[in-house]
Amino acid sequence: MKIVDDFSNIFKRYDLDLEVKGEAKTISKDPIMQQVAKLVIEGDDDEIGDAVKKALESKSPLEVINEALIAGMDEVSRLWEEGVYFLPQVILSSDAMNVGISLCEEAMGKSMDRKGKVVTHTAEGDIHDIGQVIVNALLNANGFEVVNLGADVPTDKVVAACKEHKPVMVTGTALMTTTMTAFPKIAHQLKQSNLPIPFVCGGGAVCEEYVTDFDLGVWGKEASQAPGMAEDALSGESWESMRSKWNG
Ligand code: B12
């Protein structure tokens, strides 16, 4: 079964008359997970809540995040790259994704004692916060206290939050080549302020070569690495040792 058999309903909503170039693919053989991925792809934030709750009856929150929500969003990225989806569809999909992530986060529980703080942000000028939202959910679920600065955060605000909260680790997400340039600036200011906190940077635009070119920088490829990295930082590993463990 294809995820979206007919795009015309989606396009009708936006008065777009397009020839569909891409062919949507099956995400999961499990019909319940398939339904969650399908609702991300269709950007249906009304229906996705019930579908995620149903999936959580038989799957762990992490499985739902990785195998249905992120997998669905990967398909949205493909449709965008192929010119099938435009901004309206992608916004609807990311809204649906966020509804799903919140329910998974709730299911993972937040009541445990917190181990240490992690400051997270999405770079100044960048509103692509889905990666950061996933990182927040996974850190929370693993017992870290997330100081969530949100998206489009000025560099000074990130440094000020680090001075105030003294986190074990700070993270940055950037999806655009124009916004990731904030990361070396933040790292420089943290160093000047004598706060050599491991600074884990990720997001579609960001590559290992870029992040390992400035002090404090550790490249994060997958959101699922964030809790393990935070454990290392909590146990006192320096950014240099984290970089050699996780990168290269
Ligand atoms: C969704 C999306 C949007 C949504 C964003 C909604 C939201 N709330 O995030 C909307 C529709 C709003 C949007 C707007 C725009 N977008 Co857009 N968007 C995308 C799209 C389709 C998917 C991005 C995404 O969410 N991926 C899924 C998430 C999960 O991936 P991720 O963040 O990279 O995270 C993964 C890893 O990187 C990692 N990770 C991320 N952070 C961290 C942190 C740590 C600590 C760790 C360990 C790991 C980690 O973990 C995740 C996986 O596990 C991409 C296309 C693409 N192929 O990526 C374009 C894309 C990013 N957008 C693009 C552009 C140009 C724009 C606009 C400027 C378009 C416009 N003309 O207005 C605006 C930007 C506005 C702004 N100032 O930010 C370009 C950027 C080009 C570039 N390289 O500079 C892209 C690449 C599309 C393209 N090819 O042109 N967009």
Structure description:
The chain is an alpha/beta fold. The chain has two domains: 88 residues, Orthogonal Bundle (Methyltransferase, Methionine Synthase (B12-binding Domains), Chain A, domain 1); 130 residues, Cobalamin-binding domain (Rossmann fold, 3-Layer(aba) Sandwich). The chain contains eleven helices and five strands; from the N terminus they run H-H-H-H-H-E-H-E-H-E-H-E-H-E-H-H. It has a five-stranded parallel beta sheet, sandwiched between helices. About 5% of the residues have low confidence. Bound molecules: cobalamin. The site of cobalamin has 36 residues, from helix 4, helix 5, helix 6, strand 3 and strand 4.
CATH architecture of the largest domain: 3-Layer(aba) Sandwich
Bound molecules: cobalamin
As for the CATH topology of the largest domain, it is Rossmann fold
Query: How many domains in all?
Result: 2
Please state roughly what percent of the residues sit in beta strands, choosing from under 5%, 5-15%, 15-25%, 25-35%, 35-45% or over 45%: 5-15%
What letter string, H or E per element, gives the SSE order? HHHHHEHEHEHEHEHH
Q: Using the CA coordinates, give the radius of gyration.
A: 19 Å
Number of helices: 11
Strand order of the largest sheet: 2-1-3-4-5
Quaternary structure of the protein: single chain
Number of strands: 5
Distance between the termini: 40 Å
Approximately how much helix is present in the residues? 40-55%
Largest sheet geometry: 5 strands, parallel
Globally, the shape reads globular
Uncertain residue ranges: 12-24
